[in-house]
Amino acid sequence: MPNPVDLAQAQRSLLLTAALLRVQDAFEAARIPFLAFKGPTLSLALYGSLGARSYGDIDVLLPADRVVEARRLLVELGYKSELDVTDEQLAWLTTFLNEYAMRGESSFVELHWSVVRPGYRFSLRYEDLAPYATTTIIAGKSVPTLRDEALIVVLAVHGAKHGWSRTSWLTDFADLALGDRRIDWDEVFAIAGRHGATRFVLQGAWLVRNELHRALPQRLERWVERDRLAGVAARMARRSPREDLHSFLSYVVAMSDGRSRWRAFQEIFVDPTPLDCQLVTLPRRLYPLYHAVRPIRLVGKHVFRLR
User: Fold this and answer.
1) pLDDT, averaged across the chain
2) This prediction's pTM
3) Cβ atoms of 36 and 60 closer than 8 Å
4) Could you write out the DSSP letters of every residue in 104-125?
5) Torsion of CA 140, 144, 148, 149, to 10 degrees
6) Whole-angstrom Cα distance, residue 264 to residue 261?
7) 123-127, 134-138, 252-256, 292-296: which has the minimum mean pLDDT?
8) What is the pLDDT of residue 303?
9) Distance (Å, rounded) from C-alpha 195 to C-alpha 96?
């Protein structure tokens, strides 16, 4: 008798895969370029099966200047915005944020225009990753996605950003990096080096070795040992199973330049969000004032408990 959990996961995977293909049809009709990452395409890359990995949404990466149009298409498909902002506000927010979530009847879609927020060396915008595109076949359809070497860098940056607070993120990274697929590590580090993400890859490798107890290729082992800060950042990340101060500091330590470290603090305290735009409606010429709304709201939430 099938395991009910496995059956439910398989059904969920089929629903999300069908949703991805509908989104692809809509984007292709509008000539919006995109890359699918995580979700169904990652499950296929890691395990050769859509239902072998648990996932709860669809993630697509697209150019920032097509996000507003993409949102309109998703609305036509029945999706609703998690936080409603005007087209003009959303276009402006793409300069600070990296994703926008929409809820459908049976699926979430997250529109990403970079892997982490703009302004970092390692933001990994659509334009940065498009040269590493490939396709995978789903239900007879070619779905655009990323080559393994670029995907390793993406998973490392994403995991580091969240302090590797979910074991599944580390397992995904390990299974792709150390599985049966032949990885060109020179290409991995060429991509990572080009975007200031090398230490994130090494931090992930350190955690794979020390937390999952999996052996690393000799060359990767040597690179991990040479980068002292990668080990420091990894130890900081494993101090807490959730996103907190330790995970944030581990992310900052793993960064390769001072400008990115400064940007990390700006992201927390200054970057406007859709919620800030919802709370206060401003005319376009006054949008820069949203940078003041954010810290005021944070003070109200954490000091005066107004929200």
Assistant:
1) 91
2) 0.92
3) yes
4) -SS-EEEEESBSS-TTSTT--B
5) 160
6) 5
7) 292-296
8) 64
9) 18
